[in-house]
């Protein structure tokens, strides 16, 4: 069957639109269309390609979701060897680096550098020929790496065709970069692995390496890997004079350069970048382990050349390691929201990267056994990916014979109910319906940022509310009085008043938040949003059966079972009724709507007098707008409430419009409109 011309043209148009939207979303972080619109285009293209196999193209945007599994990796030779970097660990060594450069170049002239984060990921090389993606490979031994093209293609920010928007497309481009898994995705992946009884990854780098080594790219496609480019290999066609120009070329081709790079005119500017990045290390959404400092001018780079395995023109300023050795003083089971008993290692306090670490999760009994961690052991602890510290391994050579094995108790350490381990599950759970530990964790979750967002309901207060018996389920929060709260320890009248006001404010919420606050197993914020959009209201959601849930994309049998199980329990239905009768209220959800604020992005800073931050976000979203956390040139408005933070200053610097609360209210209008 030949392909009609109109169909061919439609497929080409869809591909070009999808490429454009991928670039907006994954590279520029600034989408132009809603997810639903994107899905529609994607589905139409997949349908055409399925109907007309002749249309299939390995570089089609539909091919980013995974190719058939390989049986082994082929080898790829790097035309230009992939080198590594010499390290410097302090300013003196950086000064020596500069002295060496000046000696070699026989000059006293200042050298211009580019300093940028050293991404703690996995090095890869991408090859493009005439703008078309050809291969992606690992560094390997520097000369020969493994062909991981099938996995690289799944990375959303890697274009399969370079964009032609200014800098001419080279006939052959070999570009090097670092693949990484953002910290948030790393945390999610580990949580899923634990849930599935698999061993978690020690850090995002290991998770990335594991993902790139998959023979089945469908597995890789599920992991939101990302890639920053940092260097050139072989390059034909086009003259780039400096690293700065290279960075601009990358952007023009639709590739992502390493962010936060700075041009430095002398070493003091280099040191300033190192200090700033080291201070920001914990706040960045990905792991960095140092700063790469390189000579900007390509001619100078060329003159400097390389010695053995590393170039003379660059060094890595390494940050302190995030690992340390310490002792396990004891192992204590902690009861979580769903009753899971998580063994936690209490450690001899040890400093890791500026933070004192006193405890680390051991996840579950299987992990303890797999790693053979004993009470009294000397262990290696790592703090990475912005997660709770992780015990990497025990050091058996350091054992004295005094170490003891940890045994999971058969009774809950908090309520004394029996502890059970379900068939096929790694977790032990407390079966106590009224377990106070479970209740405390549920309340914290209920009141947390992703849930009802009750400001001021901290751990200490939850602790007392449960211990005094004032609160036996989340519904009780809405019946608390000023006198009851004022009777709690260390809660001044004013704070009690503020807390009551926050509880009252939280009653006006949204359906997705309400669903998320219930703490249903496997149901996080994203799933809650999907459920709200699918069912529109709470009633139909509570009445649904597992098959109804599975109609929703991304909801599998396990989540469906968990939802049905939750709503089938009288106890949970009673709590929901109690919350609704107390006045908790949310509008029904219509399918994602277009509105007056479509295409506009808002950043909220400071506090608003007339509504909570989440209410403001809901207003924006109800009118089709988007609320984001970071200010950039693309932000349409920054809404500055009382005591605005640095975001207001940034808006001013970038010339972004700043709205007062009053102006914001005028813009979003009255509730009726939604
Ligand atoms: S430039 C000759 N820039 O660190 C290599 N490398 O230890 C020049 N890396 O193999 C590399 N972030 O994989 C450069 N911003 C960055 C980097 C970076 C991470 C990796 C790279 C290299 C290794 C060197």
What do you see in this structure?
With 674 residues, the chain is an alpha+beta fold. It folds into six domains: 5-65, Helix hairpin bin (Helix Hairpins, Orthogonal Bundle); 86-318, D-amino Acid Aminotransferase, Chain A, domain 1 (2-Layer Sandwich); 323-398, OB fold (Dihydrolipoamide Acetyltransferase, E2P), CATH 2.40.50; 454-505, 5' to 3' exonuclease, C-terminal subdomain (DNA polymerase, domain 1, Orthogonal Bundle), CATH 1.10.150.20; 511-581, Orthogonal Bundle (DNA polymerase, domain 1), CATH 1.10.150; 601-673, Rossmann fold. It has 24 helices and 24 strands. The chain has a five-stranded mixed sheet. Strands 16-15-14-17-18 form a five-stranded antiparallel sheet. The longest helix has 23 residues, at 5-27. Residues 83-85, 116, 118-119, 123, 178, 230-231, 258, 292, 311, 314, 316 line the site of 2-(butylsulfanyl)adenosine.
Overall 3D shape? globular
Average the pLDDT over all residues and give the rounded result: 90
Bound molecule kinds, no repeats: 2-(butylsulfanyl)adenosine
> What is the class of the largest domain in the CATH system?
Alpha Beta
**Alpha-carbon distance between the termini?**
50 Å
What's the total helix number? 24
Largest sheet: 5 strands, mixed
Which value, in Å, is the CA radius of gyration?
A: 28 Å
Per CATH, the architecture of the largest domain is 2-Layer Sandwich
Helix share, percent:
25-40%
For this structure, what is the CATH homologous superfamily of the largest domain? Answer: DNA ligase/mRNA capping enzyme
Number of strands: 24
Neighbour order of strands in the largest sheet: 2-13-10-3-9
Structural class: alpha+beta
Contiguous uncertain segments of 5+ residues: none
Q: How big a fraction of the residues is strand?
A: 15-25%
Q: What name does the CATH topology of the largest domain carry?
A: D-amino Acid Aminotransferase, Chain A, domain 1
What is the number of independent domains?
A: 6
